[in-house]
């Protein structure tokens, strides 16, 4: 196929793409419904795994850190800290490994994952948090906001 394309380019004619049958890519209601059922099952499975294994594991971790004799480890015993760090690692673990795999295979998928994730985090999560806030306008602390903006800007520059 590449020799045909090179020969056509050398002769000045445009290379044509192979013919694709039009009936092969038509949307199907049955296939769409099957995908809907499969995606719903995956959400249920993720809920079950998180409810049965992930949350109890975080609770055990928090209790062990609270009882630690070290002050720095006791900070991990706070539920807010554990929820913000360990849950974030658990939720974003697949994204991390996708980026690592794409880094070592030379794929551009890692850039798309990072950009897509950042857009989702900025638009959907922040927007829903503001909508769920009990009082408006939402008051935020300056130091965590400045820290997050700094690291987000750094991730964009990299």
Short key terms for the protein model shown above:
single chain; 158 residues; mainly alpha; 6 helices; 75% helix; extended
Task: Tell me how many strands there are.
Answer: 0
Element string (H = helix, E = strand): HHHHHH
Shape: extended
Number of helices: 6
Low-confidence stretches: none
Amount of beta strand:
under 5%
Whole-number mean pLDDT: 80
Radius of gyration (CA) equals 24 Å
Which structural class matches the secondary elements?
mainly alpha
Query: What composes the largest sheet?
Result: none
Gap between N and C termini: 39 Å
Identify the quaternary structure here: single chain
> What percentage of residues falls in helices of 4 or more residues?
over 70%
Describe the structure in your own words.
There is one protein chain. The chain is mostly helical. Helices cover 75% and strands 0% of the residues. The protein has helices at 2-11, 29-66, 71-74, 79-105, 109-131, 142-157. Helix 2 packs across helix 4 (79-105) and helix 4 packs antiparallel against helix 5. The radius of gyration is 24 Å and the shape is extended. The two termini are 39 Å apart. The relative contact order is 0.04.
Topology record:
Elements lengths: L1 H10 L17 H38 L4 H4 L4 H27 L3 H23 L10 H16 L1
Structure described in brief:
With 158 residues, the protein is mostly helical.
């Amino acid at each position: 196929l590449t020799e045909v394309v090179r020969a056509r380019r050398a002769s000045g004619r445009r290379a044509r793409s192979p013919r694709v049958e039009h009936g092969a890519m038509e949307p199907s209601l049955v296939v769409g419904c099957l995908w809907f059922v499969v995606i719903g099952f995956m959400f249920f499975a993720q809920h079950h795994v998180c409810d049965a294994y992930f949350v109890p594991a975080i609770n055990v971790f928090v209790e062990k850190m609270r009882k630690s004799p070290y002050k720095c480890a006791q900070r991990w015993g706070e539920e807010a800290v554990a929820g913000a760090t360990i849950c974030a690692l658990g939720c974003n673990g697949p994204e991390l490994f996708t980026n690592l795999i794409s880094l070592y295979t030379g794929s551009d998928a890692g850039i798309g994952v990072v950009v897509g994730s950042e857009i989702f985090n900025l638009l959907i999560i922040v927007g829903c948090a503001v909508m769920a806030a009990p009082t408006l306008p939402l008051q935020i602390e300056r130091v965590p906001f400045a820290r997050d903006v700094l690291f987000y800007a750094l991730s964009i520059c990299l």
